[in-house]
Write a structure and sequence with these properties.
Layout lengths: L1 H22 L16 H5 L32 H9 L1 E5 L7 E8 L4 E6 L8 E5 L3 H6 L7 H8 L5 E5 H7 L15 H15 L5 H12 L39 H6 L5 E2 L17 E2 L3
């Protein structure tokens, strides 16, 4: 009997041990690398993750006039970006604003692209919203007012001069469905998306967040891009004396009439100068910052 029982018992014990070995937990999966202070990976951890809201109601016009001069420097945003991103730029005669030609070290391909303003050539270089306006609409921007959406659409941090065909191919895709063909630029690209969404309080979907994390895992120290200074929303004209107190901060260049005068600017006249509405007309004579 022992000869029969012992083999059976041993077989049961060995089977139990084998099952225990198979069920033993393996090593814990490696956690995502922690980003260095000031890195895009560190900032990514603070970006909210939610589902995509409906696209219902989205129109380009909900983000204001295309390429508005929101920083009031006399140039529209497209020309500001071209002047920033092109090299050897040439301006229209008599203008220090309208860019007519220049060379672009295109980041998405990479390749050199020649910009020449004109029919059939201007579209070879386009200005990309790194976080597309439609994407922003579905991830927080539909709850903003018009001024805030206009400021977002013209934020230099979210704008890059790029190859026109690639910009069209990207459309309104996020990082889950589109990344630049130039693999060497992908870390910088998703880092800029993190910076934009962090600065403007937008969220990511889980798929988008995971795609960004995968890219940044290969470059955990990629710095979070610093903004060029998101332009302030357009000031609401007061239209009357005393509409704003001196130093209200509506003028993006100067904080008070004394600074305006010291810079050799002014005076500003009601109905003639838009700057009039940014300052207090103390004596109500229709002229502000007269010195």
């Amino acid at each position: 009997m022992l000869r029969v029982v012992l083999p059976a018992v041993l077989a049961g014990l060995l089977a139990g041990c084998g099952a225990g070995l198979l069920a033993a937990p393996g090593p814990a999966p490696a956690s995502a690398p922690a980003g260095a202070p000031g890195s895009a990976l560190e900032a990514l951890a603070a970006v909210p993750v939610k589902g995509r809201a409906p696209r219902t109601g989205y129109e380009r016009e909900r983000f204001g006039q295309a390429w508005a001069d929101v920083d009031r420097n006399g140039c529209d945003t497209r020309n500001d970006v071209l002047a920033r991103d092109l090299t050897g730029e040439v301006f229209e005669p008599g203008s220090d604003c309208v860019v007519v030609s220049g060379d672009l070290a295109e980041p998405y391909t990479p390749k050199a692209v020649r910009f020449q303003r004109g029919e059939g050539t201007s579209e070879l270089v386009q200005v990309d919203h790194v976080v597309a306006l439609s994407d922003a609409w579905q991830k927080g921007a539909q709850g903003w007012d018009d001024a805030r959406r206009t400021a977002f659409a013209n934020d230099p941090l979210n704008l890059l001069a790029v190859d026109g065909e690639l910009n069209q191919a990207k459309g309104d895709a996020d990082a889950a469905t589109w990344l630049p063909p130039n693999r060497g630029y992908r870390c910088a690209y998703v880092a800029r998306q993190v910076a934009v969404k962090s600065a403007h309080g937008l969220w990511m979907t889980q798929a988008e967040h995971d795609a960004v994390a995968r890219v940044l895992a290969a470059c955990p120290d990629e710095p979070l891009p610093a903004g060029d200074g998101a332009p302030a929303p357009p000031a609401t004209p007061g239209g009357a004396a005393g509409a704003g107190a001196a130093g209200d901060g509506l003028d993006p260049r100067h904080g008070s009439c004394s600074q305006v005068v010291a810079a050799g600017l002014g005076p500003y006249r009601r109905g003639a100068d838009p700057e009039y509405d940014w300052y207090q007309d103390g004596d109500g004579d229709g002229t502000a910052c007269e010195g």
